[in-house]
Amino acid sequence: MDKIDPLALIIFGITGNLAQIKLIPALYDMAEKKLLPENMSITGIARKKMTEAEFKNYIHYVLHLANTHHQHEIKEDVFKTLCKKLHYLPGKAEDSKLYQDLNNHLSETTQKSRKAGNRIYYLATYPELYRSIFENLQKNNLNKQNNGWVRLMIEKPIGHDFPSARKLNSLLLKYFTEDQIFRLDHYLGKETLQNILTFRFANDIFEPLINKDCIDHIQITASEDFGIGKRGGYYDKVGALKDVGQNHQLQMLAFAAMNSPTKFSNEAVTEERIKILKKLVPLPEKIVYGQYKGYTKEEDVASNSQTDTFYALKTHINNDRFKDVPVYIRAGKKLKKTVTEISIVFKNHVNRLFKGKDCGDEPNVLIYRIQPNEGIVLKILTKIPGYDTKLQPEYMQYCYRHNPHTHNVPDPYERLLIDTIRGDQTFFNDAKEIEAQWAFIDPLIAVRGKPAIYEPGSWGPKEARELIEKDGRGWLEPSMAFCRI
Ligand code: BG6
Fold this sequence. Notes:
By secondary structure, the protein is of the alpha/beta class. It has 2 domains: 149 residues, Rossmann fold, CATH 3.40.50.720; 266 residues, Dihydrodipicolinate Reductase, domain 2 (2-Layer Sandwich), CATH 3.30.360.10. It has 13 helices and 16 strands. Strands 7, 8, 9, 10, 11, 12, 13, 14, 15 and 16 form a 10-stranded mixed sheet that branches. A 6-stranded parallel sheet has the order 3-2-1-4-5-6, sandwiched between helices. A hairpin with a 3-residue loop joins β13 and β14. α9 crosses α12. The longest helix is centred in the first third of the chain and has 18 residues. Bound molecules: 6-O-phosphono-beta-D-glucopyranose. 6-O-phosphono-beta-D-glucopyranose binds next to α9.
C-alpha cells in the first residue's frame, strides 16, 4: 500500500456505541498492521469529563469488551503505540467553547508534527447534532482547507426519507464540497462485496450470462439469528427496511447488477451503482412486514410498537438488461440463520438433458456469500461417481478460507478509514445515490402497517413465503455446505 498522509482524526462521540463497536477496534487493528501514519493524532470528543489517562483506560476497556472486538487478542505493545496518538477533549457538540479548544489543540498537534493540517472529522454522533457541529467548525475556520485537506465522515441514517435526505445533503454542501464528504455505508467496505466487481469485470466468462435471457430471478437475503439487543431506542424508530434495506441491501443489488464502469474510478463506479438504483421499481403491493414474537418486550421498545424487524419484497430493474427479471429481497432479526448473500438463479434450458431425472431440474445458482463462510460459489449438477448416471448438486467455489480469529480480511471500517485518508470515494455514497435509495424506499414505507408476527428462529412470517410462492418460486435455504471454515 502507498504511504499515507499524516493527519489528525477527530471523532465526535467517542464514548458512543459506534465508536466502541467499530471505530476503536478498527483503529487498534490498523495500529497492529502498522497502517496508521507516524504523524497521526486521534482526538476523541464526548461530553464526559475524563483526563487523558482516564481516556486511555477507557480505550483499553473498550478493546477488551467481549462483544465489541473481533476475537483476536489485544497486544499491549500495539495498544501502547495506539495510545501515543490518542487525545481527549471533553465538551458538548453544541457548545462553541469546544471548538475554540479544538482549534487550539489542533494547532498545537499540527505544529508539533510540523506537518500539513490534514483533518478528518468523524461524526459518530446523533444526526441532530450535525448542524451545530458544522456551524461551529465553520465559525472557527476548522472546515477550511488552508493548510492541508479536510474531510468529513458520516454514517447512516442520512435522513429518514427522501426530503430529509435531500435537506441533509444540502446542509452538508453548505459547509463542505462533495469531494470532502465521505458518507459511509459499511457494506461498501466489505471485502466480499468489493470482490463482486473483480469477479464480474476481471473475468469475461460470466458477464454474458448476467442478463434477462439467462437469469430467472435474483434473491438477496440478510438474516440474523439475534434480536435488537440494547439498540431498542434506535431500532424502534427505524425498523428493518430503513435499517438495512435502504442502504446495505440496495448496495448489494447494485454491485450484482451494475454494468461495467468505463474505468475503475470513483465517478465511474458510483455512476453505475446509481443507474441501477434509479431503475429499481418500488412495488408497494409486493412487500411484507414482520415483527418477531416478543419484540415489544425488548428494552426501549414501545409496548404497542408496530416496527418491522423483518421484511420481504419483490422488485425489478427497469433496464434492458434485466427487464422482467424479478428481484426478491428479505432481511430480518431473530431468523433461522445468520447469513448474508446474493443468489443469481439461472433459467433452465428447455432442452436440458437429464430434465426430470434425480435433481436434474435444479437451476444453476451463482452465490455471492457475503458472510459467514465468505465466498463466490456456483451451484452446478455433477455425476455421482459410479457405474450409473446419477446426479447431485455440488459447488464450484472460491472461498476466503480465512480463520475468523485472524484478521487478514480488513474490517470494513479499517478499509473505509484508509480510503478516506487516501481521498478515495469509490466505496462511499454520494448525495445522488442516497437520494435514489430513498426514492425507492419511500413508497414502500408509506404502506407499512401492522406487521405479521413471526416465531423467532423461523424464516419470517408465512406471508413472506406466499409472496414468492405466488410466482411459482421459493426462497432458497442458504447452504452452509460450501466454504466451510
Ligand atoms: C447495521 C444495522 O447497519 O448493519 C444492524 O444497523 C445490522 O442492525 C448490521 O445488524 C449488519 O451489519 P453486518 O456487518 O454485521 O452484516
